[in-house]
From TrEMBL:
Similarity section: Belongs to the short-chain dehydrogenases/reductases (SDR) family.
InterPro entries per record: NAD(P)-bd_dom_sf, SDR_fam
The keyword Oxidoreductase is annotated on this UniProt entry: yes
Single GO MF descriptor: oxidoreductase activity, acting on the CH-OH group of donors, NAD or NADP as acceptor
Protein name stated in the entry: NAD(P)-dependent dehydrogenase (Short-subunit alcohol dehydrogenase family)
Entries under Pfam families matching the protein: adh_short_C2
Keywords attached to this entry: Oxidoreductase
Length: 243
């Protein structure tokens, strides 16, 4: 058993999950990533485990392999399969999150453990490029953070969520580096840039740290303030870019 704190990343084989895994590793944590597919090029220092499916049995097998109580669990999984998107989103998003949290609560959480569920602005807004299943799952995840914050609070487990919009990560850097796209984000965002995966990782790290010891049941917006800008103002800014 390591003396270091342990962070379990669900869906940490790529994207924001992998960036978060590297963030915790760089800050001195033991890091385990559990996902259905292993990365093509595993990152040094991160232990990668296969999570067969969303069942409680599969969750327990992963937790049994950790070798020590888990101090933080970060949910960053995403449905990437073909077929029925409704069943897939609910299984990958809601069912896996529920079963992993409830199984971990059966003796696998360390004292003062934390859970962070990374969600999407689609919980509040219409994302035209995403199906209804995606919207329903993200809205449900936000409410699950509230539910488990209350049901697990007496056990010392804090549960919070993160709401984010478009995030630039290693897999989509080329797309978001397009000059026109960069100009739009620089114009509409109060911070003058788009969200980086490291911004989400940093927010998760804060929520699982001692500085957030009295924060639970909260869904933190990490969107650079874009959600605070009126629709009329956004349209005017974009119109000015195009003229």
């Amino acid at each position: 058993m390591s003396d270091k704190k342990l962070c379990l990343i669900i869906g940490g084989s790529k994207g924001t999950g992998l960036v978060a895994a590297k963030h915790y590793l760089a800050n001195g944590w033991e890091v385990v990533s559990a996902s259905r597919n292993l990365p093509e090029k595993p990152a040094d220092g991160i232990r990668f485990l296969t999570l067969k499916d969303s069942s409680s049995d599969s969750c327990r097998k992963v937790l049994n392999m950790l070798g020590q109580p888990v101090d933080a669990v970060i949910f960053s999984q995403k449905f990437r399969g073909a077929g029925d998107s409704w069943a897939g989103e609910l299984d990958t998003g809601m069912t896996l999150t529920k079963n992993m949290i409830e199984t971990a609560a059966d003796g696998f959480f360390a004292s003062k453990a934390s859970v962070v569920i990374i969600g999407s602005a689609a919980q509040d807004f219409y994302a035209e490029e995403q199906p209804v299943s995606y919207h329903a799952a993200k809205a449900a995840l936000a409410q699950m953070a509230v539910y488990y914050a209350n049901s697990l609070g007496k056990k010392g487990v804090r549960v919070n969520g993160i709401l984010c919009g478009a995030v630039k990560k290693p897999e989509n850097t080329t797309y978001y580096e397009d000059e026109k796209m960069k100009k739009i984000y620089e114009t509409i965002s109060p911070l003058g840039r788009m969200c980086e995966a490291e911004d989400i990782a940093g927010a998760a790290f804060f929520l699982t740290g001692s500085s957030a010891s009295y924060i639970t049941g909260h869904v933190l917006k990490v969107d650079g303030g874009i959600s605070t800008v009126s629709h009329e103002s956004l349209v005017k800014k974009i119109w000015d870019i195009k003229r």
